[in-house]
Every structure is written in C-alpha cells, then in structure tokens.
Amino acid sequence: MAEPHTCSIEQLAINTIRTLSMDAVEAAKSGHPGTPMALAPVGYVIFNEILRYDPTHPLWVNRDRFVLSCGHASMLLYSLLHLAQVQQVDENGRPTGELAVPLEHIRQFRQLHSRCPGHPEYRHTSGVEVTTGPLGQGVGTSVGMAIAGKWLAARYNRPGFDLFNYGIYVLCSDGDLMEGISSEAASLAGHLKLGNLCWIYDDNQITIEGHTSLAFSEDVATRFQAYGWDVYRVGDVNDLDSLRNALKRFNPAGERPTLIIVKSIIAWGAPNKQNTHEAHGAPLGEEEIRLTKQFYGWPVDAKFLVPPEVLEHFRQGIGTRGPQFREQWESLFAKYAQSYPQEAEEIRKITSGELPEAWDRDIPTFPADAKGLATRASSGKVLNAVAKRIPWMIGGSADLAPSNNTLLTFPEAGHFAANNYAGRNLHYGIREHAMGAISNGLALCGLRPYAGTFLVFSDYMRPAIRLAALMELPVLHIFTHDSIGVGEDGPTHQPVEHVAALRAIPHLVVIRPADANEVAEAYRVALRMRRNPVALILTRQNLPTLDRSQYASAAGLACGAYILAEASKLPPDVILIGTGSEVAVCLAARELLAQDGIAARVVSMPSWELFESQPEEYRRSVLPPEVAARVAVEAGIAQGWERYLGPKGIFVGMKGFGASAPAGVLMKHFGITPENVAAAAKKSLGQA
Ligand SMILES: Cc1ncc(C[n+]2csc(CCOP(=O)(O)OP(=O)(O)O)c2C)c(N)n1
Ligand SMILES: [Mg+2]
C-alpha cells in the first residue's frame, strides 16, 4: 500500500483535507463529508496559492475574504484553517495564543465548545468570515463585502496608496444558487459591476433529495452572463491547473463579478464507486473510510493524521505569502497616515468599531407639537444628522427611500453606483432579502449599515436579520409603516404580527419610539450598540411630539421603558403601557380615567430588550408588582405581552389582520382608542 509521501505534496495536502473531513464527520456521527472531500482541491488552491491572508492576523482590514456559502461543508473550512495555522484572536484582533482550529477541536467536530460547530460561526472561530448554513446567506453577504470593498477603496485610496483592493472568494453550491437570494444578490452585483467578487459554484448536480434534475435545470452560466458576470468553467475539480487558470482570470480590480463553475462529483466513499444520493449528508462508515484511505494511499488506520510536510507546505504558501502582503500593507499604511492623518484615523476607527468624536452632536431636539410628525419623518432627520458625522454609515432602502425617509440628503452623501463607489446612498431595488444579507456584509467589513423597508416586508429579509443577530452585527433596520396606521393600503401592507416576530429573535433590539424625541434617543442608543442589530419600528402617520416639560424626558428610552406620566397618587390605581403610536392613546386614556377619579400611570415602553437589560430594581420601579391593574396598548398582536400584564392585565391591540380604510377609521374599528383603553383599565381594576 502506498504511503502518503509517495504522491505529490499538493495531492498530499488535498488528501489531508479529505481525510480530516472524513474522520471528523465519522467521529461526530453526523455532518457532510462528501462536499469537503470533493472541494478540497478548490480550498487548497485558494488558500495556499491565492488568498492574500495572514494567518497570524485574521482581522487585517485589507485581507482577501473567503466565504463558505455552503456552510454544511464546514469541515473543508476547518481543515483549511487548521492547515493554514490561523491564529485565534479576540475581537480586537489580539492573538489569544491558540490556533483557531486546533486538531483537538476537529476531533470534537459538532460537539459543545468545539471551535468546529456543525456550521461555521462568525466570532466563534477566527478565520470564519461569516456565519453560513442557511443556503444563500453566504453569497448574499458576500455582495455586501464587495460593496464595502469598493466603497472603502473609493473613499480612502489615494494615488500611490492602493489601501483597499481585497477580493472576495465565495464557495457555493446548488442550494445557494437555487435560493432566491442568490438571484437578488447576483443581479445587484452585476449591475454594480462588483469586479472584486468571485463565486465558485460547485456544480455537482446533487442535493439532498437526489439529482438536481429533480428541480433545477436552468442554464446557470447564461443566467449569470445575463446578470453581467464573467463566467468560466472548470471541467474537473481535480484538475488543479484548470482551477488555477480560472482563478487567475478573476481580477479584483476588474469591472465584472466572476462566476467559476466547477464540475465535481460528490464523494460518498471510495471515489471509484458510483455516487448515490442515499449517502448524501451522512458519515461514510468505518469500512468505507478504510477503502477510501486505501484509494488515497493513506495509512488506513490513521485518524486525524496531518503529515508534517503538509503543515510545512502551507507554511511556505499562505504562511509566507500572507504575512508579506500584510507587512507591505502596514508600511504603506504608515506612510499613508503621515500624508492623510484624518483618513488614517477613520480607518483605525472603522477597524476597531469606534464612532467619530461628537458623532451625536447634531441630533435635533423636537419642540412640542400637537399636530406632530410621523416617526418615519423624524427618523429621516435624525438619520441625516447622525450620518453626516459618521462617514462610514452607509445604507438605503429596497426602493422605498422616499417613504422610509432613509435618503441621506446632505450634498456630499452621493449615490453608490458603478460610476460612484464613494456614494453613501445605496439603492437595493426591490430586493429585501439581499438587502438584509448585504447589510450584514457591510457590517462585517466595519461599516455601519442601515436598511429600510416597510415593516410588513421585514418577513422578506428575516433570515438575514436572524443571522445579523446571531453574528452580533450592528446593522440598523429602519422599518416604517408599522401598523394598521398605514391605512388605505389594507391588510397586505399592515403588519400585525411583525413586532412580536422581531422580538422573538434573540439579540435583536427592537425599538418602537412614541414621538420624535424618542426617535432621537433611539438613534443615540442604536449607534452605541456595537454588537446588536437594532430594528426601529416607525409610523407612517403623524404622532404628536410630546411636551417634555409636562412629561418625562425622552432620555428614558435608553432604559427600554420609563414612567412618562406619573399617576396623581402612589401607588397608581392602574398602569397603562404603550409603545409607539399607542403611547398618545394611553396619555388620552389617562385623562379620561382622571375624570373618574382613577389614577393612571403611563409607561412608554419602546423596547422590551432594553428594559429587560435594566436592573431588577429599576424594572420594579416602573412596573411595581403590587400594581396588578394594567393595560398594554400596541397596534399589533398580544403575543408576549402577558409577561408585563400579569393575570389581571388586559391587552388592547389586534387579534387578526387589518383592513383597507383611513387610519383613523381603522383605529376606531379595531378599538385602539382612549375610550377603549380607559374601559379596559376599569375592567382590569375590577370596576367593569
Ligand atoms: C435555506 C436552507 N434550506 C435547506 C437547508 C438544508 N440543506 C443542507 S445542505 C442542502 C442541500 C445540499 O445540496 P447542495 O446545496 O447542492 O450542496 P451539496 O450537497 O452538493 O454540497 C440542504 C437542502 C439549508 N441548509 N438551508
Ligand atoms: Mg450540490
């Protein structure tokens, strides 16, 4: 039997990736070994021959990015991170002194606390650029990374200082390209001429249920050419020279994104056996592994074997090339900092996640005004005041900027386009899902993205919002038209369950401000958050700007809930809790109750998540447990409110879908009125 060292070092390295993947999946008794095995040559060439990536500085800002969009092939990435000896770093990029993926962690693939979880997780394992697993998210996110690359280059590169020129390499599968988000994202990438983007498509013609002919017969090459991409083909994944040639044709400074279609045959055991779908996504089994190792000329009984010469080979490849590129960049940057100190300081802040000094200085205070302002309108003003002082805050809307008020209107903002990569207004077109993933990609590259659409369409981007939360990315979502207050557009456009659904996502901070000054505070809170996505929930209709000399300061928003109007006696008879547009309804109900001698406290509760993070003492001071008579008012469903209402509390809101009619008519029709809230308060007090 052949020993490992009898084949070429390249083949030995590739077989190391394969056997590590087999052994890890076998030990875990779950996972997909086939795709990592088949794609090992692609991973090998990209990592060891192409990536400008320093394993000792995995957060270097101009590194090439590698995204494994088919996250189920995670063992491919873990094997590569191990062989490249990528260092684990803390969130400031400081090495912790360990490997990101030590062999012990590969042995513990898919086990608790292993840095090799079932699918790659950003922040958990250094070198993982993005959390992937839900097919389509990686490719979508990569477009955000490409936009960020172009934007950074346009803003910061200077003659002789090509500071930003990284490329984004994405490995994707049939599932990625079947998912709708890939079409949205690729269409936009082609339109924007994002030449720094390279997707490598594993055309293995198999998915879980079987041959792709079951459900996928489009001509992928023609599809991507129609999007404006350059398309190349590699007929056999094991033909390294053909892979190299295709990858060489990708030029990150070029003008069109690149798709490389690579034919592969998924491995499910000894490669001389025929492929069947039964084995797809399952461990190979001991016997099959032995046969496969034998076929590779591998010691059949060795497990998790990494020949030292393979480590040495990677040390001479990425391990030598990467640090050279980074060190050259560092010295370039040092010179740059002398010529362009302000820009260099901005880059430093982008890298460390800081905001500019006095970024919040221009946030306006809104005078009391009974006629008021829609919170989407005050949001537009505050967004502009903030964005003007945070140059790397960029974003846009899915074709609703005039409604979401997400347009940056100051002259230097400009519009991001193929001929103006320095622009800060992004135009996503009607592509909410891609907008969500792209926002994640922007945040992963240090920018502060915001994204707007109608709240009802948050469903169209939910998978990306969820991943932003899982990755702890500071993405700002601006959701307007937040209730039946939308009016005549009717139930298709009236969110009912959406606020509850967003609150259900762990780590996402949902804020529904009650008036213009709460909007101002919401931005203060949102931008300070470095590791939470935030969803602002804003109205289409005008809301009175509350007189803060009469009511408590809007600064209370930072605590999630605060006593806006205290009861005339303590303890209060009843507590009225409102969010957003319903806070004014609570205030009016409080007046009605006062006429009947009932002392009501009004609590504005813009954010459950912020409130839950307060000390218990504060929470009890706002919602004292001894006051059981409570009413919560929100123009959405009741789900979740029981936690604040207790057994005697009553919810006033929606029970089903809305209807098409003027907003005022609908509020009356669905009973979201001061009279109804006052009646509910009496009922809760046991008086009705
Ligand atoms: C959005 C989404 N739907 C379903 C799955 C479950 N899933 C994991 S892999 C896979 C399909 C695998 O086929 P393909 O994408 O061609 O990858 P290959 O097996 O060829 O590597 C599916 C459906 C998923 N991960 N994400
Ligand atoms: Mg496939």
Summarize this structure as a short list of keywords or feature phrases.
3 domains, 688 residues, Rossmann fold, alpha/beta, 14% strand, binds magnesium ion, binds thiamine diphosphate, six-stranded parallel β-sheet, elongated, five-stranded parallel β-sheet
CATH architecture of the largest domain: 3-Layer(aba) Sandwich
What would CATH call the class of the largest domain? Alpha Beta
In this entry the ligands are: thiamine diphosphate, magnesium ion
Kindly identify the CATH topology of the largest domain. Answer: Rossmann fold
In DSSP terms (H or I, runs of 4 or more residues), the helix count works out at: 25
Can you summarize the main beta sheet? 6 strands, parallel
Overall shape: it is elongated
Question: Helix fraction?
Answer: 25-40%
Count up the domains.
Answer: 3
| Straight-line distance between termini | 89 Å
List the strand order in the largest sheet: 12-11-13-14-16-15
- Counting DSSP E segments of at least 2 residues, the number of strands comes to 22
Low-confidence stretches: 270-278
Which percent range describes the beta-strand content?
5-15%
The overall average pLDDT, rounded, is: 96
Radius of gyration: 28 Å
CATH superfamily membership of the largest domain: Thiamin diphosphate (ThDP)-binding fold, Pyr/PP domains
Q: Which structural class should the secondary elements be placed in? A: alpha/beta
GO molecular function: metal ion binding; transketolase activity
Enzyme class: transferase
Binding site for Mg(2+): 174, 204, 206
Binding site for thiamine diphosphate: 72, 133-135, 175, 204, 280, 457
